[in-house]
Amino acid sequence: MSVKGFSQSDFDVFHINGLEERMTAIQSQIQPKFKELGDTLTEELAVLAGNEMYLHIAKHARRKVNPPNDTWMAIGHDKRGYKKHPHFQVGLFDDHLFIWFALIYEVPNKKEIAESLLTNSHLIMELPQDFVISLDHMKKEATSLEQMNESDLVASLERLRDVKKAEFLVGRHLTPTNPIVGDGQALLTYVKETYEHLLPIYKQAMTQR
User: Fold this and answer.
1) pTM of model > 0.85
2) Which InterPro entries match (predicted)?
């Protein structure tokens, strides 16, 4: 199956004014590419994870006035939804593509997962240095592992454990001008490789469900 990459016009969608206008562009330009990419990645992840995985494409249904600043697809083990579980994402802001393993604020057993990751922090610290960590899925900012030491990581995971709204995402960013982004097959390979690095963290988190 051929997979399309993302063009500059896809990133420019987030400069369109108005909720309806931006959502129309997201639905027509970006979501079909998520479906193509996501269907293949879901199959690959099901094999790697050893259980069924399901694709979810963000609908932004709760938005009534403000248009979304980013959009994404998510892959997780629950057919009904992904937000309450450890999951994988691929998505776009206007200035980068993100590839995440994500624990967002809606995960009910974050405390237990955080404790488990604190005990196994080497799974994160041993990732390639170009991987980045975010503590808020709604913000663009992320810190590369190259800039972090183990005490920084411990503090981030303790915050995940102790703060109700805390989040933890780890993965990679790509700029729109990176040749991988526009080449569908290269992007598919890159995302799969990224997920393979993240899979031990996902599996560790899933032991706590």
Assistant:
1) yes
2) UPF0637, UPF0637_domain_sf
